[in-house]
Design a protein that fits this description.
Length: about 375
């Protein structure tokens, strides 16, 4: 493995891969030789490169992990595909659906394994919910709803490259965390989002950008030198959804909601039962019924469906968390790579492909288009020029 972009999430990519036990982390690439060397030394990685091109050219790198800012995804991924390397990219795959489609087509032509890290798929109770819905335990699902709320951008002094359209894309909150919620809802229910109606808001319209070149996600900058910047991308969103299986839905997305740190939750309502999962209580799955007592299923391998059991690695009562789910995603992806299977074959459920990344980008584009046209129903994919 070689990693390009050793920031906040990059370190978790390395940790997750090392936990697999059969993958060597051999190289890191950053924006300069000095920066790469510092990160490599801190993370115990032997080789450091000041450019992604140099890392990708290393013959000992078989899999390239891309955790760069969004605007660099296209050049990094195309360079890796050009060398015939497998690619694991952080989401979003690209900042527009057209670019995401281009990357999907390039990966298909290259014949390599390609993946996007929608990491919440790796939680055992997410897989349990998916198994229960697929088995018909809820009956036909008619309503899917939830939220993903954070507060790390609440103050005017909070700033990130994600707010700059040339680096993060036209969408901020929806592209960053809303994409996670949409993927999770589709993955669990087995229904795809096909129409959206969106109302987007910029609550903090003027932010004070620090003079430091970069501020890590969730970090507070102590730099006193700041420049006022007008923000155009959304930090709050309300979205109505229609799914191809007939379900309707709604989701609230916000990064300016005080007290919410990583408040991701979803609920699916069927004709027989309901399910709700909350990321901040991720070892519990709420099951709601009309004619019987509601219940909470605690994460316990002995109580999970066979397809979900393989994602739980500790006995009941032993809590598993965000990093464990992330490792589960890597285990699914590297299992396919190690087995020598091509990209077109069957893959485990926590493994999201570039096709999933492309569909996610289509949803974000449709949400932006819906808002731009005055909050009207917009079909996913219609605004995309492939």
């Amino acid at each position: 493995m070689g990693l390009v972009g050793p920031g906040f999430v990059g370190a978790h990519h390395i940790d997750a891969v090392r936990r697999l036990g059969f993958v060597d982390v051999v190289a890191i690439a950053a924006s300069s030789d000095a920066s790469a060397r510092r990160k490599a030394d801190a993370l115990g990685v032997p080789r450091a490169y000041g450019s992604f091109e140099a890392l990708i050219a290393d013959p000992d790198v078989h899999v390239v992990h891309n955790t760069t800012p969004n605007y660099l995804h296209v050049p990094v991924i195309l360079a890796a595909l050009g060398r015939g390397k497998h690619v694991i990219s952080d989401k979003p795959l690209a900042i527009t659906a057209a670019d995401a489609r281009m990357l999907l087509d390039a990966a298909t032509r290259a014949g390599v394994v390609h993946a996007v890290t929608f990491n919440y798929r790796g939680n055992p109770l997410v897989q349990q919910a998916r198994e229960m819905i697929a088995a018909g335990e809820l009956g036909p699902v008619h309503f899917v709803h939830g939220a993903y709320l954070q507060d790390w951008l609440l103050e005017a002094t909070d700033f990130s490259w994600r707010l700059e359209p040339d680096k993060g894309g036209e969408s901020s909150a929806v592209g960053d965390i809303g994409s996670h919620w949409c993927d999770l809802a589709q993955h669990v229910t087995g229904q795809r989002i096909v129409e959206v109606l969106a109302d987007l808001t910029t609550v903090v319209e003027t932010r004070l950008k620090p003079s430091a070149a970069s501020v890590d996600a969730f970090a507070r900058s102590g730099d006193a030198a700041r420049e006022p910047v007008q923000v155009r991308s959304e930090d709050l969103a309300t979205i109505l959804l229609r799914f191809d299986g007939g379900a309707k839905g709604t989701v609230s997305i916000g990064q300016v909601c005080a007290g919410h740190k990583n408040g991701l939750w979803f609920e699916a309502n069927g004709r027989r039962a309901s399910l709700r999962w909350e990321q901040e209580k991720q070892n519990e799955l709420w099951i709601g019924r009309r004619d019987a007592a509601n219940s909470v299923l605690a994460k316990d391998p002995s109580l999970l469906a066979p397809g979900a059991r393989r994602y739980a690695h500790l006995p009941g009562g032993h809590q598993e968390g965000w990093a464990d789910a992330f490792c589960n995603v890597m285990r699914d992806i590297y299992g396919v790579i190690a087995a020598g299977h091509g990209p077109g074959g069957a893959h485990p459920p926590a493994f999201a492909t570039f096709e999933d990344g492309y569909h996610s980008a289509c949803i974000v584009d449709a949400i932006l288009d819906s808002h731009r046209r005055g909050a009207v129903w917009t079909r996913v994919g219609e605004a995309v020029t492939a």
